[in-house]
């Protein structure tokens, strides 16, 4: 079976952080996740990650889903892959893809096509390469008339070799059985005193095995980050690539300032995304919506014709024709049914808001089930927490909840109930009733004048 080994031992000193470099994020996902996703998309399920610096953070992130091995000392890329020998030896029948965990843009197509060439040419090893205008720092591919003869690292290269623009991406296909054998033959006689994985190529050739190079026309597969500036560049690059994909699908952007859309997001035709809008994780958005400005949507499911203006919404379902904002916070596990309007300074949490209901301003609705065509007045609060436990409020269809109503949970309003403004509802209210809780209002004539007189003597 084919499998993958991902090198994730690097610290990335210039990042100035106590974190393995492959865990730095590009568009909200660690670079290591991008590499794993590409492997999985290409059908590689058996994955071994070689960890080094702060390896426990890699384990914590992967949550036991993949094999990991520790490279205790950083003695080179060949030494890193040697740590995976027990993983390779479990099944030597197929091929192994070796990748760098900090080059996030390796893609499914490159993985598949290079494997095809690797198998067709019956190679022991096939290196994935690309041409760079500025090849400085990378291993150069030495081509011969009928293939390649090896890879020369920057620090070991002659001036003539330094002029070569085809470079090693750091990704390779190996026949697994050959890889195990070749790893045993590496030495560290080179300018850096490291065990170079790249030496496997010249060794294979010297033993009469085939070695090849697959040149990708996608030079981005080489992109990595050595410092925060590089990481920002990767983010900018990925951000625009995602936006361009949506543009091609018929999504409208008049200005992309502050717009960040993660890879897992789907957006329907005719939807407009306005500035300062961040759409994260597996959010799906229907057609003809207007999202933004100043909006964050994370892991939400939005229907068609939804309008969000200055909204933060997390883990929620918002059905078609809903209009929300500005300054609204929709917290997890909320369902906002179609045709609902939610206006300024409203917070909704773990609640169902029925169809065509209006919550126009300044309200908190938590742990509640609200029916259809309800009007929630300004300042309404569902009092869902007594300091120990949370309870639910239920509000029936067609209720009119007056301004500044407190609903002390658990409590239920039946159908078409009115609550008078300022009422604190402490018991269930039957269908069609009015709940009113008020002292008798008094008017004390001339009060202000008397007060001024006694206080100021005037
Ligand atoms: C390596 C290649 C070079 C190629 C370049 C592509 C070798 C000898 N050279 O360069 O031909 O053009 O990648 O980026 O392989 N790593 C470990 N343990 C180690 C050393 C490295 O896990 O002991 C990991 C790094 O974290 C990184 C990857 O291997 O993910 C590549 O290492 P890096 O030092 O960045 O590459 P170079 O050796 O410069
Ligand atoms: Ca190195």
From TrEMBL:
UDP-N-acetyl-alpha-D-glucosamine binds at residues 21, 71, 76-77, 139, 153, 168, 226, 331, 349, 364, 375. Pathway: Nucleotide-sugar biosynthesis; UDP-N-acetyl-alpha-D-glucosamine biosynthesis; N-acetyl-alpha-D-glucosamine 1-phosphate from alpha-D-glucosamine 6-phosphate (route II): step 2/2; Nucleotide-sugar biosynthesis; UDP-N-acetyl-alpha-D-glucosamine biosynthesis; UDP-N-acetyl-alpha-D-glucosamine from N-acetyl-alpha-D-glucosamine 1-phosphate: step 1/1; Bacterial outer membrane biogenesis; LPS lipid A biosynthesis. It comes from the Bacteria. Its cofactor is Mg(2+). It catalyses: N-acetyl-alpha-D-glucosamine 1-phosphate + UTP + H(+) = UDP-N-acetyl-alpha-D-glucosamine + diphosphate; alpha-D-glucosamine 1-phosphate + acetyl-CoA = N-acetyl-alpha-D-glucosamine 1-phosphate + CoA + H(+). Residues 229-249 are annotated as: Linker. Residues 3-217 form the Nucleotidyl transferase domain. Binds 1 Mg(2+) ion per subunit. It is found in: Cytoplasm. One of its GO terms (molecular function) is UDP-N-acetylglucosamine diphosphorylase activity. GO terms for biological process: cell morphogenesis; cell wall organization; lipid A biosynthetic process; peptidoglycan biosynthetic process; regulation of cell shape; UDP-N-acetylglucosamine biosynthetic process. In the N-terminal section; belongs to the N-acetylglucosamine-1-phosphate uridyltransferase family. In the C-terminal section; belongs to the transferase hexapeptide repeat family. PANTHER family: BIFUNCTIONAL PROTEIN GLMU, NUCLEOTIDYL TRANSFERASE. Catalyzes the last two sequential reactions in the de novo biosynthetic pathway for UDP-N-acetylglucosamine (UDP-GlcNAc). The C-terminal domain catalyzes the transfer of acetyl group from acetyl coenzyme A to glucosamine-1-phosphate (GlcN-1-P) to produce N-acetylglucosamine-1-phosphate (GlcNAc-1-P), which is converted into UDP-GlcNAc by the transfer of uridine 5-monophosphate (from uridine 5-triphosphate), a reaction catalyzed by the N-terminal domain. Homotrimer. This is Bifunctional protein GlmU. The gene is glmU.
């Amino acid at each position: 079976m084919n499998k993958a080994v991902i090198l994730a031992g690097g610290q990335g000193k210039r990042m100035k952080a106590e974190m393995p470099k492959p865990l730095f994020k590009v568009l909200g996902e660690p670079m290591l996740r991008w590499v794993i996703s590409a492997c999985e998309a290409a059908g590689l399920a058996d994955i071994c990650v070689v960890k080094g610096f702060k390896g426990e953070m890699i384990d914590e992130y992967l949550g036991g889903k993949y094999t990991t091995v520790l490279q205790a000392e950083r003695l080179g890329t060949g030494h890193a892959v040697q740590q995976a020998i027990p993983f390779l030896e479990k099944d030597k029948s197929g091929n192994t893809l070796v990748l760098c965990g900090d080059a996030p843009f390796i893609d499914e197509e490159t993985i598949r096509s290079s494997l095809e060439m690797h198998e067709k040419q019956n190679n022991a090893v096939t290196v994935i390469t690309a041409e760079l205008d500025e090849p400085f720092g990378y291993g150069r591919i030495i081509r011969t008339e009928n293939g390649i003869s090896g890879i020369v690292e920057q620090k070991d290269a002659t001036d003539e070799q330094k002029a070569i623009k085809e470079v090693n991406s750091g990704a390779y296909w190996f026949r697994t059985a050959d890889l195990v054998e070749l790893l045993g033959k590496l030495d560290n006689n080179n300018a850096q005193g490291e065990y170079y994985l790249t030496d496997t190529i010249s060794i294979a050739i010297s033993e009469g095995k085939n070695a090849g190079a697959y040149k990708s026309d996608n030079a981005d597969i080489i992109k990595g980050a050595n410092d925060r500036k590089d990481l920002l560049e990767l983010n900018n690059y990925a951000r625009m690539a995602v936006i361009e994909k949506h543009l091609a699908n018929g999504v409208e952007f008049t200005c992309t300032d502050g717009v960040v859309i993660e890879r897992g997001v789907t957006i329907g035709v005719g939807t407009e995304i306005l500035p300062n809008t961040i759409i994260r994780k597996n959010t799906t958005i229907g057609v003809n919506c207007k999202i933004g400005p100043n909006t964050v949507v994370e892991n939400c499911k939005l229907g068609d014709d939804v309008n969000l203006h200055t909204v933060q919404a997390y883990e929620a379902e918002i059905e078609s024709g809903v209009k929300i904002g500005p300054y609204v916070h929709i917290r997890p596990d909320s369902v906002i049914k179609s045709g609902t309007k939610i206006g300024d300074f409203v917070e909704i949490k773990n609640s169902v808001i029925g169809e065509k209901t209006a919550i126009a301003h300044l309200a908190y609705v938590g742990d509640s089930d609200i029916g259809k065509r309800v009007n929630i007045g300004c300042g309404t609060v569902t009092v869902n927490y007594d300091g120990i436990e949370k309870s639910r409020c239920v509000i029936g269809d067609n209720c009119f909840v007056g301004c500044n109503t407190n609903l002390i949970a658990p409590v239920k309003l039946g159908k078409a109930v009115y609550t008078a403004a300022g009422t604190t509802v402490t018991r269930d209210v039957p269908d069609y009733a009015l709940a009113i809780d008020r002292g008798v209002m008094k008017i004390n004539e001339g009060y202000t004048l008397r007060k001024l007189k006694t206080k100021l003597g005037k």
